């Protein structure tokens, strides 16, 4: 590996533990290491990672940072979907309503598991220890040395603990001082990912979208389907988002009811309908919301910090969950480098204030797109032309952002505000 790591401004460097070796935890490890901090370990509760999930997007905003931190982003781009454009189609007949560059949505779409493998490899290349089978069961927010306890009973201390422990974060309870239950977004996804059989490939009623790399969306009233291929057409993914006000068991693994799927796609464009209807099994993925959190930082030591889905999960229509986790990693690493060892709390509180408004913009992109898609064809006659702009994905403006530069540019203003709040003895909650 050939890149220059920055020198730590601290002597000795800050010792940091990361909880969760998902894409967010890996990005945090790489960013913090690049900025000269000492990443003691990345802990994950699972014993080994499987190829879980399906399609995930990574945008230019993330690639820019990863490349700066010495990662060969071509490794990801090469395995991402290479389709030049994506098509947004009418639910009933597949008529193309808008076509736009794939890069307008998420940059490269690839399999979450494949991208995760590469992130893990980048962490290991830096000799950062990833400890698997290490479930964190509790945190202690002692100042100035917070700690965590593993299921084995082992206690670990650090200068900073980064909790990238996902949507069901344990650390979030400590940070908020209470449990927060998921709230239904009112929607759920059925999703399936599989290698098409030879029989399917030969069947004209099911093979219309099997050739090469492609990305398509079918939009209708309160419903949409995302379909894409991966690995040059050898793998096939569909995701059906629909209204769902039922209970919210929040799970990545809940089996879906294919009869319900068949009912929902009964009037979908026949060119994709049969491919979906004949799918053997799918997952039922409730899209759970959490209201924007009032804080991402622990109340006593201010040294246990949330990052990624633990504090800023996105809707799938944002296509920015992993990219924003990467941005947060860069901002946190910069903030920690701008303070002395005794001032970590200024850095962590500045980090949440810097990141919150940006995250809300990115989250709102997903809500806006879903709402535009689900409403565009309501009460519209079949033969009426739709303005393509109404249904286009508008993520591109998000990509120019550089979260490290932003942290530096706004540091004086934001850190002064944090200092004033500490002086007054009251940290203002994050709010829109
Ligand atoms: C199984 C799964 C499938 C997904 N599928 C998709 C998908 O298809 N498309 C998509 O866009 N996004 C998907 N996502 C979400 C996407 O990965 C995230 O939005 C994004 O990568 C940011 O993730 P994160 O690292 O913040 O959280 P996560 O990816 O959820 O990672 C959190 C990590 O923390 C670990 N962890 C949790 N609690 C503890 C604990 N107490 N102790 C130690 N370790 C702990 C978990 O094992 C996990 O590895 C999926 C996530 C998961 C977990």
Element string (H = helix, E = strand) = EHEEHHEEEHEEEEEHEHEEEHHEEHHHHH
User: How many domains, in number, for the residues?
Assistant: 2
Which ligands are bound? flavin-adenine dinucleotide
Q: Assign an overall shape.
A: globular
**The CATH H-level homologous superfamily of the largest domain:** FAD/NAD(P)-binding domain
Strand content: 15-25%
Protein structure class: alpha/beta
CATH class of the largest domain: Alpha Beta
Biggest sheet: strands side by side, in what order?
Answer: 5-4-13-14-15-12-16
Number of H/I helices: 13
Q: Specify the helix fraction band.
A: 25-40%
**Number of E-state strands:** 17
Enumerate the spans where pLDDT stays under 50 for 5 or more consecutive residues: none
Termini separation: 42 Å
Give a verbal description of the structure.
- The chain has 432 residues and is of the alpha/beta class.
- It folds into two domains: 15-82 and 110-180 and 291-424, FAD/NAD(P)-binding domain (3-Layer(bba) Sandwich), CATH 3.50.50; 183-289, D-Amino Acid Oxidase, Chain A, domain 2 (2-Layer Sandwich), CATH 3.30.9.
- 34% of the residues lie in helices and 22% in strands.
- It contains 13 helices and 17 strands.
- It has helices at 23-34, 60-68, 74-79, 112-125, 171-176, 198-202, 258-264, 270-277, 309-312, 321-337, 344-376, 388-391, 403-424, and strands at 15-19, 38-43, 55-58, 85-90, 96-101, 108-111, 130-131, 136-140, 147-150, 155-157, 160-163, 183-194, 215-220, 223-230, 235-243, 283-289, 304-306.
- The protein has a seven-stranded mixed beta sheet with strand order 5-4-13-14-15-12-16.
- Helix 1 (23-34) packs parallel to helix 10.
- It starts with 14 loop residues before the first strand and ends in an 8-residue tail after the last helix.
- The model has no long low-confidence stretch (mean pLDDT 94).
- Flavin-adenine dinucleotide (FAD) binds next to helix 1, strand 3 and helix 10.
- The site of flavin-adenine dinucleotide has 31 residues, from helix 1, strand 3 and helix 10.
């Amino acid at each position: 590996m050939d890149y220059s790591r920055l020198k730590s401004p601290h002597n000795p460097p800050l010792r940091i533990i990361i909880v969760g070796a998902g894409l967010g935890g890996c990005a945090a490890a790489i960013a913090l290491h690049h900025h000269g901090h000492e990443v003691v370990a990345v802990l994950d509760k699972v014993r080994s990672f499987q190829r879980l999930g399906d399609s995930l997007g990574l945008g230019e905003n993330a690639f820019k940072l990863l490349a700066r931190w010495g990662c060969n982003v071509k490794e990801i781009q090469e395995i991402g979907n290479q389709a030049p454009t994506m098509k947004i189609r009418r639910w009933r007949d597949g008529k193309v309503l808008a076509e736009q560059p794939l890069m307008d949505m998420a940059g490269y779409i690839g399999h979450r598991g494949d991208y995760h493998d590469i992130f893990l490899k980048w962490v290991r290349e830096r000799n950062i220890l990833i400890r698997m089978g290490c479930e964190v069961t509790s945190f202690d927010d002692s100042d100035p040395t917070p700690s965590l306890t593993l299921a084995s009973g082992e206690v670990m201390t650090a200068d900073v603990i980064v909790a990238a422990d996902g949507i069901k974060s344990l650390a979030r309870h400590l940070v908020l001082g209470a449990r927060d239950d998921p709230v239904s977004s009112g929607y759920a996804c059925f999703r399936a990912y599989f290698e098409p059989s030879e029989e399917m490939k030969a069947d004209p009623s099911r093979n219309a979208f099997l050739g090469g790399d492609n990305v398509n969306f079918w939009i209708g009233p309160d419903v949409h389907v995302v379909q894409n291929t991966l690995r040059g057409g050898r793998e096939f993914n569909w995701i059906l988002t629909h209204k769902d006000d039922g209970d919210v068991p929040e799970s990545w693994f809940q089996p879906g009811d294919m009869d319900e799927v068949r009912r929902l796609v009964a009037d979908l464009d026949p060119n994709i309908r049969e491919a979906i209807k004949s799918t053997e099994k799918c997952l039922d993925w409730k899209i759970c919301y959490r209201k924007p959190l009032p804080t991402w930082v622990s109340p006593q030591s201010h040294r246990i910090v949330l990052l990624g889905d633990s504090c800023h999960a996105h809707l799938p229509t944002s296509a920015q969950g992993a990219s924003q986790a990467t941005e947060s990693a860069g901002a946190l690493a910069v903030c920690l480098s701008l303070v002395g060892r005794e001032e970590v709390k200024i850095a962590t509180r500045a980090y949440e204030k810097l990141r919150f408004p940006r995250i809300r913009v990115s989250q709102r992109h997903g809500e806006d797109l879903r709402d535009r898609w689900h409403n565009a064809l309501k009460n519209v006659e079949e033969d009426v032309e739709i303005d393509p702009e109404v249904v286009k994905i508008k993520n591109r403006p998000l990509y120019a952002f550089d979260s490290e530069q932003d942290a530096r540019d706004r540091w004086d203003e934001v850190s002064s505000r944090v200092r004033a709040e500490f002086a007054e003895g009251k940290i203002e909650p994050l709010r829109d």
